[in-house]
Structures are given as C-alpha cells and as structure tokens.
Amino acid sequence: EESCDFVKEQTVDVESKHEFITETEEVKTTESEKEEKTKTTSRHKVVTKVKEYHWKVTVNYSLFAFPGNDPESGKIVLQSREASTVIVTTGGKQSPLPSKTINRPIDLSLTWLLQNIAEDSFNCSFSINRAATSCRTPRQNEEIYAAIIFFNKMMDWSHRIIHHFVRVAGIIDTGTDGTPPPSAKPESHVDILSVNDNEIFVPVLPLFENLAESAESKAPSSSDSTNSSMLISLGEHEDKSGASPLLPIADINKFLSKQCHTLSCALKKLEESFPPSSAHTLISAPEASLVLLSHHIVSIAKYFCNGVECIEEMLRSQLVSAIGKEIQSEDFSEFFLFHNRKLFKNEFAPKPFCHAVRRPEHYPDGVLSIERKETGVFSTTKNNDPIVTFMRRIEGSSSPMFFPINAATSVEFTGERFLHAWICHEFGKERESRRGGFNLVARARQFSSFLLLIGTVSGPDSFDPQHAIILQNKDEVLIPLLLNQLPTPKEFKDAIQSLSPEQQRFAKSFRSKQ
Questions:
Q1: Residues 225, 249: contact at Cβ < 8 Å?
Q2: pTM of the predicted model, to two decimals?
C-alpha cells in the first residue's frame, strides 16, 4: 500500500553556476603630482527563486503466509514495515504519485512444497513413481513436471518481489528526473540494484560419486546418521547393494551448512551497508534482505531445472553413443519396417505404395506412387522412396463403380482396387515441417496416356472426383500432399464434451462426412 500527501510549499534561492567578474581601474593624482592607479574587482552571481513542493510518501508492506484461500484466516506475518520519506518536486503543485495506491498482492502457492514434506518428521518425501506409465526418464515424468512448474512459479514470484522494491527505491527520484532538488543535502546511499547473490553457495548440484575412487577414502560411521548438527534427514534409506552413485547425507549436509554460512555473511553485509528498519528511508536492511533472498530463490530454481536437464542430457548422450547416431523419424520407420518383415507373412507384410497403371493383358501405361521428399540435408531417406503401407487387394471382377461428369451422366469403371493403411511415424517437433513432405507422383510411359482422378469415395459404388488430369508421353506430375490429421475418436469426444447438444450433433455430422 502506498500513499502520497502534500506537506508544504517552500521557496529557495538557487545560485547560478556562472559568475560575472567586473574590474574597475581608477587613477588618482597625489600632492607630489604622481599618478596612482587602483583596481577594483567585483563579482556578481544570478540568484533564482525556485518553488519547491514537499510530499510525504508512505509505503507499507507485509510478508505473510496463510492456509486455504482466505488471507485473513490464520495468517502468520513473517516480515512487515511501514516507511515514509519526503520527496521534493518543482515546476508545479501537481502530485507526483497517486494519493493512495493499493497494489495487487504478489502471492505464491506452497501446496506442492508442503505436499512433499512429511507431516510427522518434516523429512523430504519427494519420490518418482517409476511404475507409472507416464514415467519415461528422470526428467520425463509427472512428478518432475510438477516440480518444474512450482520452481518456475517461484522464479516468477521472486522476480516480482525484486521488481517491486526496485520500483519503490525509484520513488525518491519521481518528479525530479533523477536530479536532486535545490534544497537537497548531498548524502550517500547504497543502490538496491547492487544487491546480488553471487557470494551465496547454491547446494543444488547434479553430482554423482565415483564409488571406485571414493571407496578407499570413504569411512562411514554410525555417528553420521545421528549427528545433531545435520540440517536435513531423508528418512531411512539403505542401499544394500552399496552401488548407489548418489552423495551420502553427510555430504549434502555439508553443502547446506556452506549455504547457511555464506547466506549469513551476505545478510550481515547488507545490515552494515543499508540503514536499519527504524530509519526514515523507503529501502532499509530488511528490504535489501528480501531482495537478496529473492535472488537466491531464483538461483536455486535455475540450478534445479538446469540440473534435471543435465541428467536428462547425460542419459540422452549415453543412448546416442550406444546406438551410434541420433534417431530421426525416418530411422524409426526403418526400424519398424525391419521387424515387420519378420512378424508378418509375405501376403500381409507392408508393401511400397507403387502401382502400375494398365489395361487388362496390356503393357503398363504408367506408374502411380506416393513418395517421400527429403526433409533436410542430413536426411537418411533417399529421394523418390515410396511410402510403405498395409494393403488389401480387391479383384477387378467385383461390382463396378461410377463417377459423375455432369448432372445427367455417370461413367462406369472397373478394375483392381487397393485399400491402403499407412502408419506415419513422426516426432512432435516434426509435425509442422513434414506436412508437405510427401508427393503423389504419376508418370506416363512413351506413346501411352491415362486419366488420373483424385477424390473421395462417397458411397458403396460411387466416387466423387475433386481433381483430374490427363498424362501422356512421359509426363510426370508431382502433387504435394497436405497431411492434415483428423483427431482421434477419443480426442474428438473430449473436444465436444462441453458443447451444447445442437453443436455436438453438428460436429458429429460434419465428422461423418470427413
């Protein structure tokens, strides 16, 4: 909460920085008829009368914790202070700040943090459920997702705290453009922007212990687990195999002791540099301590997120080193294609989408295929490589089909029919870049021609053409395919769940057309 009240109006004399000097020479004749010359020097300065307007600015804040969603219910005040100072403006009796301002609270939910602390012993109870289907790596699991979300919110909260006190410190220069008023007395003060946590040790580090090197020098004792000076206790944890690369609890407590020592030293320096809380200044040692702790919270959050990413990158580099390359979606497709040859019989195995266009008992007139385009310089796929699909073949002796050419005429056509099912492997980051990565390719042979129709099957024996082209004499057509995937039935059901019944019926009717 901030307020600004008018105190008084004062007129001060401001001397000019420039000085004017006048020299006067006077010649006098004495009785002995001698001339004496005398010089007189006079100095002048311009004095300007300036009106100053004094304003009393009061800042009141409170840092507290509270349970539930009611701030006034059972709150515990951690720190609070009401400070005031006088700022001086010139140029007009206009308030430099609003008469009263109630800022929005800067709040942070500590639910996740408290959920990972045991109620009876106050031990850290954070763990990763490795049996969950969503757990894939030490980084890719629900528990770490929640932790990173919390630490990101902590960083945002800390940045807002820092920004608030930096803004409060800048109130002193409000209305003067940083220039001190004429009646101001020179004084020295420490800038809040100089506060940082560079000298504070951050104990959050992705360290592993090399057991082969530390086995000889490591001498565990029973007193380590019962030392009263330990800062944390992770509960009963025994590694029967003795092969855990994690640091022992004693080393972790040494890290925390180092953090507490450096933090105490940094806070002591702030108490010596900034005025006490009883001083009539907006920024004192308690506010500087809050800024310092906010900087330290940001560092802890960054170290945690970077440490988790470091472990993830370490496992990823080990996997890439074991395989010998970084797997792309094309490599994943080749992997499945290799195993499909072993699992399926020849008549059911996936086959390349490449078909000859021919009349019965005649030489092919052309070729129709769907081919993959190169996705980049380091692509492992070859150009003009057809996609591989599951296929069902229907003999040409089945019932004919028709397609209309106008309102009164339909054309009958027969021949072999092929139903294809294609599994396109792609990673999430490649979805946008691979929409135009495939071509429908039609090629005609020399002295041959055929008609290519592209459309949809609108009924059991009807075909609705959308595009058509005639190819002849070595013509080659490459048609880019825009792969706009339809949502799965579950995704569609979840998307329309909150719609009205009329909107749901319309969405289902439109989806049936697709």
A1: yes
A2: 0.71
CA separation for the pair 47, 145 (Å, rounded): 68
Q: What is the pLDDT of residues 343-353, one digit of tens each?
A: 999 888 999 99
Residue ranges of the domains in the chain? 52-212+244-322, 329-483, 489-514
Asked if residue 367 lies in contact with residue 354, where contact means CB atoms within 8 angstroms, the answer is yes
CA–CA distance, 4 with 87 (Å, rounded to integer): 10
Q: In Å, what is the CA distance from 392 to each residue of 349, 350, 359, 389?
A: 11, 10, 20, 10
Q: CA 450, 451, 455, 460 torsion: positive or negative?
A: negative
Distances in Å between the Cα of 289 and the Cα atoms of 165, 203, 265, 293 are: 11, 20, 12, 6
Reading the block at residue 207, the tokens are 């360290």
Task: Tell me the C-alpha distance between 462 and 468, whole Å.
Answer: 16
Which residues, including other chains, have CB under 8 Å from residue 107's CB and lie 6 or more apart?
157
3-state secondary structure of 499: coil
Cβ neighbours for 401, distance < 8 A, ≥ 6 positions apart: 412, 413, 414, 461, 462, 463
Phi, psi of 44 (to 5 degrees): -130, 140
Q: How many helices (H) and strands (E) does the chain have?
A: 8, 16
**CA torsion sign, 316 to 322 to 328 to 329?**
negative
142-169 helix and 285-323 helix, angle to the nearest 10 degrees: 150
Instruction: Give me the sign of the Cα torsion angle 245, 251, 252, 255.
Output: negative
Q: Give the pLDDT score at 32.
A: 65
Round to whole Å and give the CA distance between 220 and 206.
22
Three-state DSSP class for residue 156 = helix
Name the average pLDDT for the chain. 84
Segment 16-50, tens digit of pLDDT: 777 677 777 776 666 666 667 777 777 777 777 88
How many C-alpha atoms does 352 have within 13 Å on its Cβ side? Answer: 13
Encoded tokens for 436: 């135009």
Q: How many CA atoms lie within 13 A of 159 on its CB side?
A: 10
Burial class of residue 291, CB neighbours in 10 A (0-12, 13-18, 19+): buried
pLDDT tens per residue across span 143-164? 999 999 999 999 999 999 999 9
Question: Residue 148: in which H helix or E strand, if any?
Answer: helix 142-169
245-279 b/e (C-beta count within 10 Å ≥ 16 → b): eeebbeebbebeeebeebbeebeeebeeebeeeee
Cα–Cα dist 311/480, whole Å = 41
In contact, 391 and 423? CB cutoff 8 Å: no
